[in-house]
Structures are given as structure tokens and as C-alpha cells.
Design goal:
single chain, alpha+beta, Uridine Diphospho-n-acetylenolpyruvylglucosamine Reductase, domain 2, Uridine Diphospho-n-acetylenolpyruvylglucosamine Reductase, domain 3, 2 domains, 5-stranded antiparallel β-sheet, 3-stranded parallel β-sheet, 10 helices, 31% helix
Length: 250
């Protein structure tokens, strides 16, 4: 199905992007578009205005300092895979980026789009929680920082409010990370995934078992669907947490 008519803006600065979003209560940021465009084609959502962030250089880039990473929200999966800073400090991010979908998606999809979608089956939300990442959000009222544990608020719901943009993700140093998943096919959607980070103590987070990443095996109440029962997902969660912790060196 073809897209319905929609106004389109392609700003070149963060200030212009925020101004464009402020023009309509029904404006949406386009950060890659793999999900949003398909949802619009299905007429499940119909924004009045699409604000394409592809040319906003302030939202791209990766920097490293003393083991801490700063990743621009519009950094693509391919750029995560190719970054020496990422590979040298948190190689699990490069590996996981390379496991997402296919080359076309990895060249267009962004880490900011991934986390802001807050799809329970996405790869990066559990990693962000286990890594204790923080998210910098900018809007008409200024800039604020939200911890990963508070950023993900529900299915397709995050701390980013209308008119605001996620600008960067900051990941503090750690001693090791792990990620394990069972997917539908080689590059498909996760049935369950788990991430772990070791930094003195070991943190873990589980995806696909709740509306947001879960940090306690005792708290999981997964759904049942055609890909697996709730009981199967509970079983997988325990196994994948163990694998992720082992990879992290915990």
C-alpha cells in the first residue's frame, strides 16, 4: 500500500528539527523509518508531518573517553559495526548491531530509532539497561538526562515527550558485556533476549518477556504467542541470562 499524503521536512540542524516538530502536535521524527513507514503504509498511524533527521549532523557520531562512549542518536547500525571506538570498548554493541535484520536495514536503521521505538522484541533496550546507559533528551524546555531504567516506559512508550528528540546515548565504562538471544530465523525478531554487564557487580536485563526490559527473573510474566508459550519464554530467559552473564565474565 502506498503512503498517504504527508508534509515532509528535512532539517539540517537540531534547532531546525525541534522547530519543525513544534509546528504540529501530530509531527513525528523519522530516524530510519523501518517501522514508522510500514505502520503508515498500513494506515495504523498517520502523522501530519514527518521530520527526517538524516541531515542533522549534531545527532551523529561516536566518541570515546576513558572507556565511556557517547553515541549520537542517528548513528546507524552499520556505523556501530565499523567504529573502532565501539569495538575497542564495548564490542558487544558492534556484534549485536550486525545481527539485526539485513544490510539495507543496518545502513538505514539507527540506535536512536531502535530505542525510541521501545519494541519489546528489539535488541538494544536490554543492552542499554544492563549497561546503565543514560539518554540525553532535548526539547522546547531545554535538555535533560534520563537513565535507561526510566527511559523505557511501555510498549512503544519512552521518556521522550512530543516535541522532544533523543540526541545522544552515554554508556559508562565497564569490565565486560554479554548478549544472548533466540530469534525467529537467523536475522529475525527475538523470541527472548538477555544482556549482562559486569562492572564490579553484574547487571542483567531481559527482553521480550514484558513491556520493558526486566531486571529480575522472579518478575517475568511473558506472553504466549505463535512463536512460544509463556512457559517456554521463562525457560529461555533463565538460559539466556546465564549465557549473557558468562560472556560478560560474571
Amino acid at each position: 500500500m502506498l503512503l498517504a499524503a504527508v508534509e515532509y521536512a528535512r532539517p539540517t540542524s537540531l534547532a531546525d528539527a525541534l522547530a519543525a516538530l513544534g509546528r504540529s502536535e501530530n509531527a513525528r521524527a523519522l530516524a530510519g523509518g523501518q517501522t514508522l513507514i510500514n505502520v503508515m503504509k498500513a494506515r495504523a498511524a498517520q502523522p501530519d508531518l514527518l521530520v527526517d533527521l538524516a541531515d542533522v549532523a549534531e545527532l551523529r557520531g561516536i566518541s570515546e573517553s576513558s572507556g565511556s562512549l557517547e553515541i549520537g542518536a542517528m548513528t546507524t547500525y552499520s556505523q556501530l559495526m565499523d567504529s573502532s571506538d565501539v569495538f575497542g570498548t564495548r564490542p558487544v554493541l558492534s556484534r549485536v548491531a550486525g545481527e539485526i535484520a539485513d544490510v539495507q536495514v543496518r545502513n538505514r536503521g539507527t540506535i536512536g530509532g531502535n530505542v525510541c521505538l521501545s519494541d519489546p522484541t528489539n535488541h538494544f533496550p536490554p543492552l542499554m539497561v544492563s549497561m546503565n546507559a543514560s539518554f540525553t533528551i532535548v526539547g522546547p524546555s531545554g535538555e535533560r538526562t534520563v537513565n535507561a531504567g526510566e527511559f523505557f516506559q511501555g510498549v512503544y512508550i519512552t521518556a521522550v515527550e512530543p516535541g522532544e528528540l533523543l540526541t545522544k546515548i552515554t554508556i559508562p565504562p565497564a569490565q565486560g558485556d554479554g548478549f544472548a538471544a533466540v530469534t525467529i530465523g537467523k536475522d529475525g525478531t527475538c523470541i527472548v533476549n538477555a544482556a549482562a554487564t559486569r562492572n564490579g557487580e553484574t547487571r542483567f536485563a531481559i527482553g521480550c518477556v514484558g513491556a520493558v526490559p526486566v531486571t529480575s527473573l522472579d518478575d517475568i510474566d511473558p506472553p504466549s504467542d505463535v512463536h512460544g508459550s509463556a512457559e517456554y519464554r521463562r525457560h529461555l530467559a533463565k538460559i539466556l541470562v546465564d549465557r549473557a552473564i558468562a560472556e560478560a565474565g560474571g
